Amino acid sequence: MDALILQTLNGLDKGSAYALIALGLTIIFGTLGVVNFAHGTLFMLGAFCAVTLQRIIGISETIIDPTKKDFLGNPLKVEVPYLQAWFGHDTAAAITNWSVPLSLLLTVPVMVGIGVVMERGLIKHFYKRSHADQILVTFGLAIVLQEVIKHFFGANPIPTPAPAEFAGSIDFGTMLGFPPNAIVYPYWRMIYFLFSLFVIGGVFAFLQFTTFGMVVRAGMADRETVGLLGINIDRRFTFMFGLAAVVAGTAGAMYTPINSPNFHMGMDFLVLSFVVVVVGGMGSLPGAVLSGFLLGILESYASMNWIKDIIPGIDQIIIYVIAIVVLLTRPRGLMGRKGVMED
Amino acid sequence: MIKSELTRRGLLKTGAVAGAGLALPTIFTARANAFTNEPKADTVTFGFTVPQTGPYADEGADELKAFTLAVKHLNGEGDGGMLSSFSSKALNGAGILGKKVAFVSGDTQTKPDAARAAAKSMIEKDGAIMISGCSSSAVAIALQALCQEAGLINMVGLSHSNDTTGKDKKRNGFRHFFNAYMSAAALAPVLKTMYGSDRAAYHLTADYSWGWTQQASMQAATEALGWKTVANVLTPLAATDFSSYIAPVLSSGADVLVLNHYGANMVNSLTQAVQFGLRDKMVNGKQFEIVVPLISELMAKGAGANIKGIPGSSNWNWKLTDAGTKAFVQSYGKEYGAPPSQAAQTCYAQVLLYADAVARAKSFNPCAVVEALEGYKFDGLGNGPTEYRAADHQCIKDCLVVKGKETPDNQFDTLEIVQVTPASEVTYAPDNKMFAGGDLGQCNPGA
Amino acid sequence: MLGLGKKDLMFLLIVVLLTLTAPILLNPFPEGSAMAQFNAGYPDLMQRIAIFAIFAVGFNILFGLTGYLSFGHAAFIGVGSYAMVWMMKLLTMNILPGLILSIVMGGLFAVVIGYVSLRRSGIYFSILTLAFAQMCFNMAYSVLTPITGGENGLGPQIADPRILDAVNTSGSVPEVNLFGLSMRATYKMDLWGRLFQFNAGYYVCGILSVLMFYLALRIFRSPFGMMLRAIKSNQHRLNYTGLNSKPYMLAAFVISGMYAGLAGGLMAAMDPLAGADRMQWSASGEVVLMVILGGVGTMLGPVLGAGFIKYFENIFSKINDSVLHDWFSIFPKWLENLLVGILHPFVGQGWNLTLGVLFMLVVIFLPGGLIEGGQRIGRLFRRKPDAKGPAPASTPAE
Q1: What ipTM does this complex have?
Q2: Sequence ranges of the domains in chain A
Q3: C-alpha–C-alpha distance, residues A115 and B296, integer Å
Q4: Of B439, B144, B150, whose CA–CA distance to C160 is shortest?
Q5: Interface of B with C in 87-126 (CB under 8 A)
Q6: pLDDT at C195 over 90
Q7: Domain count, chain C
Q8: Domain boundaries, chain B
Q9: CA distances from A194 to A16, A107, A189, A300 (A)
Q10: In this structure, are residues A219 and A205 in contact, taking their beta carbons and an 8 Å threshold?
Q11: Residue of A295, A297, A291, A294 lying closest to A8 (CA atoms)
């Protein structure tokens, strides 16, 4: 029982990341009709916004300390962050400590910019082209972006710790009457789960309760009619692309303490995000979120030892097994709309 | 824009001109040479296959830097590096057997297929006489088999699996890097002094061949100390979130977590394990501990503060104080501004060892080189007295036990050396059951 | 002749000629010159291009004709490779039994995967095929290691039985051959300052790829091909006419699966090691990219796309800094360093960047893929605008 609760918690957290990526991808893929192979890359770029902020905070002046030696035996160059020089040690330490949450302030504008530039500069010209061309151009873009990141940040994962206040874990088990250590859960993962609920709720509220959102939903359902009514649906779709980029980017930035960012993490999530979206059903935002959490939880269940003993390696393929089962029993995924990307 | 030095192909061109433009076909050219790619001009070409794209690109860049440096030193440029400390004096900085050393490089992508494509292009197009470099055992085994078929020498780069010199060993392949068995044997006594002999270990293991050999070695070594093994859980290669594997550890009754992961896998699993607060817990009345059997400098860098105090093993570290290490660190540091990694050291040493074997054998013939390397005892390459064992082509040498440093002095100061476990304690019989099933076969000169 | 029209026959003859003379055509630069770096006329790369051409041409029968985009064809490559190596281990180092088995196994897997996946269309079909291929990959990498060799791959060993071959006492693995002709055998010729390598393995691959190309040409021109095109243009309407399109779809899927199986078998025959990496989604994606890059639904497009990607992968990754310095050594030092600095991010460890940029340029400026570039160049040189329809090389699928 405790194991099941534990894996449900883990699954919710895994699912948060899946759901956020899938949400952004569905906005682009299921509504604008563009197969965006660069979506994983947006997730990666968001993560590197967090790294960039860390680097900006760490910009230092170099002081030579003659009392210490470096590895070659020369006097040691000590790097003192300007932040420390200006605000004193304690403030600088606090800012560095909180760099990941703070990076959201950088991630949001940067991702809006990237999303809008991407849509206006490139994707716009591919709305009418075949899906094959969309795949090729966005895949090319994904490679270029990740190589640029590799050029500046290297290929090695970069440590981006969560604030020290959120280190360690909470013991849920003792609250529920289980023995100690049965159900432990890290604070940062809880934060991430709450954050994802906040973002998902925000996106849905925005689409449901604002005029802008209503028009976008109408445009998703029938683009031509909305256009005939004299509404500039294109500009709204550009905005939606920016929104999708922000969702993916902030998901990436907040994920950095869990998964140390590296340049190819976008590709690692690419296939998975497509599976999540399609299992959820094309064109359905609730479907994407539901499928994200579902796959996350089932993946966690599959990694339990006694299940792995019965079916060795099930945790490696569970995602795909679920995808096949769902798609064979429900032709358009969990909540897909008819006629979206079926040809 | 003509290349300054004459290459093998340059010579072929001259030969063709001498033949008054006539084709002088040689059927099955392998027979025209005494062995594959016999160098006939005054240069000899080495082929370096390193990962340049994908997750291990930084490790590959390090390896290529070391290779470049080694070639420089062989040609008498730079400060000579470990040539001065190397016990054999057959090399004099004037190339090898009077030939200048040139090299070509290619990308393995850390995939066996891509690695073999790169190596084959070096063999067929560039006339490489030796292939070296890699950062995974799958690639090492693939390249070793290719060199065996083609009749070249493969000086394996970073490969830690027991299989490389175990069931997949080849007569034309040589490994300088240590292996999973030696890691475990070096680490076990240190673990005993650090954590005692009454411990229960929980293994998380990357689900592929290297992970399995690493885990089997660690389990055998720790059980010999009296530790219990609570569970061994295999994790998918592509996993980035290990929470569902880490979470059950605390309630399993284990008090040590062994992470048989490498590269980004290890960085993520360690980071997440620390995030779960494992290291702050007390289990069975003991402090919970984490062990990472194989640690590299790049992994330590990627794990950041989480690596502090975590024990593991390394093939080599730049903080060693022997003459060879000092010379190499000086030479490499001046050239590239950072201390070399263990991958760089093993690649550098491999090139020197190959060149030296050729010089001693007075021939580039792979079979002569094999003979010169088998059973060869040397010193001064940073690992203390070392033997290239004839029975399985594994270097038998001291192994390092390292620990993540608590208070680093500078950005490179990530690991500290706990102990140098002497070669005698990590030696095993070539027919040890973890290495059984292979056959070196005959040496193949390709003719 | 050969059941082809006059135009198609000419086209096929040109392809045959290009295949036979590839070792010469791909070696345009003299040995030792700075440009020799760009020569592609060495056996391994030519073999790879021929093999991937088979794979891409077969994939195009499915994707180009029916419009169904499979993201799982790498699974058949892997199955074909394992079948070939197992034949080498158990029966003989002669590649013929292996090739036959790899086609059969590719076909069998395609029947199973195709039968299930074809129950859905569009993106749902793509994800189903992807899911099957990823399952194959993950299983082959871990749980199925006794059969597949797992991470280390599967290769012939000295101790293998090889019941049809003579007893092996040489202490090494016998050479891969076709009735005694070693796949490594190479006839080298020094001519005009160039070294031409005529490799037996390449000609096996080349001849098979021409055969497969001919077969694909016949399929494209057949009533069956017509039916597949009808599926692409409007499957619903086709179904309403009372025709069951399923068997046609499945046939196309299985044919392309057998092409992939053959390609996988050849890969293992040229280089006797089968690794699970071949089945990964990135390998499935690669063939999709090849076909789109070359030109979907055209005959020659997939071949061009396969050659393009393999060329960049193998040639550009080998240009390192010392090669760059060699090229520019005639310039003053500062200019040399500047030029090297500019090119450095695009070659060697940056070859992926060049490939990504080229993907984008091709798809932005040549919407029909590389083949359209060829047509545009052709049109430039042609005197009068050709109104009699496009050349056979570019017959679109619609």
Answers
A1: 0.89
A2: 2-329
A3: 38
A4: B439
A5: 103-107, 111-114, 116-118, 120-122, 124-125
A6: no
A7: 1
A8: 8-178+319-394, 181-314+417-426
A9: 9, 18, 9, 19
A10: no
A11: A297
Neighbour subunits, B (≥3 Cβ pairs < 8 A)? A, C
Which chains have at least 3 CB atom pairs separated by less than 8 Å from chain C?
Answer: A, B
Segment C319-337, tens digit of pLDDT:
888 788 878 888 888 888 8
Measured between alpha carbons, how far is residue C294 from residues A103, B440, C45, C288, C392 in Å? 42, 45, 18, 10, 15
Confidence of residue A343 (pLDDT cuts 50, 70, 90): low
> What are the residues whose beta carbons fall under 8 Å from the beta carbon of B159, sequence distance 6 or more?
B134, B136, B137, B139, B140, B141, B175, B177
Using the predicted structure, report yes or no on whether residue B392 has a pLDDT greater than 50: yes
Among A14, A181, A268, beta carbon nearest to B251:
A181
The β-bridge relationship of strands A169-171 and A184-186 is: antiparallel
In this model, does residue C389 exceed pLDDT 70?
no
The reply to whether B181-314+417-426 shares the fold of B8-178+319-394 is yes
pLDDT tens by residue, B162-186: 999 988 889 999 999 999 999 999 9
Kindly tell me the burial class for residue C380, based on how many C-beta atoms sit within 10 Å of its own C-beta (0-12, 13-18, 19 or more): exposed
Domain-located, residue C384: no
- In a domain, residue C91? The reply is yes
**Residues in chain B within 8 Å Cβ distance of C171:** 441-442
Confidence class of residue C110 from pLDDT cuts 50, 70 and 90? very high
Distance CA A136, CA A122 (A): 12
Q: Which of C123, C282, C356 has the CB atom closest to A282's CB atom?
A: C123
| Mutual angle of helices B342-361 and B366-373, in 10-degree steps | 110
| CB–CB contacts below 8 A, B to C | 178
Rounded Cα gap, residues B160 and B294, in angstroms: 9
**A146 is written with which tokens?**
């990740």
- Strand pairing report for C181-182 and C177-178: antiparallel
Are the C-beta atoms of C135 and C113 separated by less than 8 Å? no
For residue C395, tell me if it sits in a domain.
Answer: no
Q: How far is residue C264's CA from residue A119's CA, in Å, rounded to a whole number?
A: 39
Strands B256-260 and B228-235: unpaired
DSSP C68: -
**What is the third-level CATH fold of B8-178+319-394?**
Rossmann fold (3.40.50)
Touching chains, A (3+ CB pairs < 8 A): B, C
Contact call for B208 and C172, based on CB within 8 A: no
Question: C301-315 and B112-124 are packed helices; what angle lies between their axes, rounded to 10 degrees?
Answer: 80
CATH architecture under which domain B181-314+417-426 falls: 3-Layer(aba) Sandwich (3.40)
Sign of CA dihedral A319, A325, A331, A333: negative
Domain holding C180, by residue range, is: 6-29+39-279
Long-range Cβ contacts of C311-314 (<8 Å, 24+ apart): C311/C40, C311/C45, C311/C49, C312/C351, C312/C354, C312/C355, C312/C358, C313/B107, C313/B114, C313/B117, C313/C351, C313/C355, C314/B117, C314/B118, C314/B121, C314/C40, C314/C44, C314/C45, C314/C48
Interface test with B, best of C317, C321, C344 (most B CBs within 10 A): C317
Q: What are phi and psi of A220, to 5 degrees?
A: -65, -40
Residues 6+ apart with CB under 8 A from B240: A259, A265, A268, B264, B268
- Structure-block tokens of residue B163: 């299989």
Tell me, what amino acid is at A11?
G
Mean pLDDT of chain C: 86
- pLDDT level of residue C160 (50, 70, 90 thresholds): confident
Residue C103 lies in a domain: yes
**Residues on chain A touching B248 (C-beta within 8 angstroms):** 3, 6, 304-305
Query: For C35-52, what is the mean pLDDT?
Result: 88
The string of pLDDT tens digits covering residues A152-191 is: 998 889 988 888 888 888 888 777 777 777 788 889 999 9
Q: What's the CA gap between B93 and B30, in Å, rounded?
A: 31
